Amino acid sequence: MNEHPDADLDALRRAWPEPAPPSHDTCSAARAALLQEVTAAVPRRARRFRLPRAGGRVLAVGALAVAITVVAVVAENVGVDAPRPIVPGLALPAANAQVLLHKAAAAVRDRPFTAPRPDQWIYMETRYQGVGNAAPGKAQTPETPLKTRVDRSWTRADGKVVATFEGGKLVRSPTGGGMPPTSFAKVAALPTDPDALLAWLYGYLGDRQGRDVIAYKLLGSLLGNNLVPPAQEAAVYQAMAKIPGVTVNPDAVDVAGRPALAVGCVEDGWVSQEILLDRTTYTYLGERGVAIADYTSPEPDTFFAIKKGTIMSRSVRLAIGITDKPGVRP
Fold it and tell me: 51 and 84 share a domain?
């Protein structure tokens, strides 16, 4: 936990000695002081997290299933008002993952929310980028060009049908379920108590090796691939705070180069799986998978290498919302 619980307030008092509204220069000085103190308090080891893909919205839990960085959330399309900053005009990154995640949970609880009817559809538009599969004998590096695709889908709120455009035609197909669930009704029925939510997840995973990281990814997938009610979203953040090995990187940036807070854990010793949160409002932005160490495939006949710093996969959520029929955007 943070060894300096009053550091944020002390920094603010030093920067804002007068009760009058602060000037722009004063805000900048306060922000710099806070970031310097937070950076000194956070261990400089690798931190990360990882996310799933859209489409069928079923999380792949294989060792190399690295996922995504969401960058922009179009909240107004969801019937959800954008949350207000914890401190207006000033970002207050937390000094560790537990503090940050509990702040995110507190911020989301009061968010206005309109639930869809069972016969309505949840529209999601996401841009995905990734390096793809490494060719045998080749190395992926931070300079490897990323492949890009944009997914647009409509999932009925009861979770039974998903619709996508294929060859210019709207095609409906059964969702086939999934883990975590993609049905809004099932998501809305998940526990709002973080201990109960973790018990549900670990009950599904059993004694599987690396289940802490898998549980973290499943929670990230739940956020990234669903319209999540505030009570369940708050429980997700609180549950993440209880998973061993979760850390925070206060110096992350999103795909557009904007500052973000990255909370995550390390998978297999070399892949950082991270969710990204807005520095000011703690709003969920998305996820990314990034190599934090060099990796070489252990199979000689399919040799490939991945260099430290390579973005394995990332995503940008372009829109999310509720509509009365598929094929129509909110």
Answer: yes
The answer on 19 and 99 residing in a single domain is: no
Collect contacts of 99-102 with beta carbons under 8 A, ≥24 apart: 99/1, 99/2, 100/248, 100/261, 100/263, 100/277, 100/282, 101/237, 101/238, 101/240, 101/241, 101/246, 101/263, 102/237, 102/238, 102/241
Residue 61: C-alpha distances to residues 6, 53, 188, 223 (Å): 40, 11, 23, 16
Residue 125 domain-assigned (yes or no):
yes
Q: Does residue 330 lie within any of the structural domains?
A: no
Phi-psi region of 312 (alpha: psi -120 to 50; beta: other; left: phi over 0): alpha
Bond preceding residue 142 cis, omega within 30 of 0? no
Q: Are residues 201 and 261 in the same domain?
A: yes
How confident is the model at residue 256, as a pLDDT?
Answer: 59
Widest distance between CA atoms in the chain: 68
**What is the count of structural domains for the chain?**
2
Calpha distance 288→277 (Å, rounded): 12
Provide the token pair at 176: 């086939």
- Asked if 30 and 58 sit in the same domain, the reply is no
Bridge partners (DSSP) listed for residue 252:
260
Q: Do 141 and 29 have their domain in common? A: no
For residues 222-250, average pLDDT:
93
> Between β-strands 121-130 and 311-323, what pairing exists: parallel, antiparallel or unpaired?
antiparallel
Percentage, residues of the chain above pLDDT 90: 38
Q: Where are the beta strands (DSSP E) in 26-96?
A: none
Closest CA to 295 of 264, 262, 268, 266: 268
What are 293-330's pLDDT values in tens digits? 999 888 777 778 899 999 888 877 778 899 999 999 99
